[in-house]
Model the fold of this input.
Amino acid sequence: MGPPVPVRGTTGAPVVASRRGVAAMARQGGRGGRGRNDDFEEQVVQVQRVTKVCKGGNTLSFRATVVVGNRKGSVGVGVAKAKEVVVAVEKAIRRAKKDLIRVPITRNGSVPHETKGRFKAGKVVLCPSTPGGFGVVAGGSPRVVLELAGYRNVSCKQVGCSNVLTNAKACIEGLKSLKTFEGVAKERGISVEELIGN
Done:
């Protein structure tokens, strides 16, 4: 179980919920009791309090950042706001599933080649593993993105920013830029043998 996430309820009383606990509450259906039967896993990486200054006073809400993946090459990041934590997590999960991407995974569970991803001030560098493998060497939200995407041996370096959402988005942008021999050959209208031969 992940470290506790301190938040405050709508009544102002302090509430402490773990990241997996919040995701479990969301999977149970929240409003309406609707469960999820798909093979996607959700993990809450951040829950923040957001205060909006209005004419009548301050309005308190919560912003949830969630990573969704099936560990088979599909992954997405979603963020949403709501007045309740569980509702914010549910909305973030739905948005993450709408923005799923497909990523290539090699036989040893790594990326095909080195690449860089950038989103606003966040930068990440993704490096493939050696033939023997060394596990997932990453920290923060990029590690969650890589693990839920299905990578087992990959290195990720964060550069320039420590924001959870920004680094997760930067990691997604880096994964989008990955290419395979089959994909490049299809773009050029030639076969893989001709591409490798050239």
